[in-house]
Design brief:
With 106 residues, the protein is α/β, with parallel strands linked by helices. The chain is built from 2 helices and 6 strands; from the N terminus they run βαβββββα. β5 (71-75) and β6 (79-84) form a beta hairpin. α1 (15-30) packs parallel to α2. It is globular.
Length: 106
Amino acid sequence: GGVYIVFDPAEGDLGDVSLAAAELSMALVTMDIDPIAACTRMAKGCDEHMIINCTNTDKPVIYIKKSDETFVKRDYENCVIISGKGMDLLKAADRAIYGFYGIMLD
């Protein structure tokens, strides 16, 4: 099956979000899981993507959230939220990948 990798297109410069999404996508592909890009809301650049969030689907969702808070947490039954900004967002994505592989480092 697939996993939705979602982001909010209204969060401004999405360079770090794009890098985190690329890292996550590569990791998922190595586990034979198809990453599916989606947006949390309709906006420019999301015309060809589905609108998905943690509550409107029962399929697995990874929400990459640009925020001053850095964390990885499970939300609802089907959602992992990866939050941060800049290098902290990439570190959070790496932490999530380690979790997916069953390697959790503190």
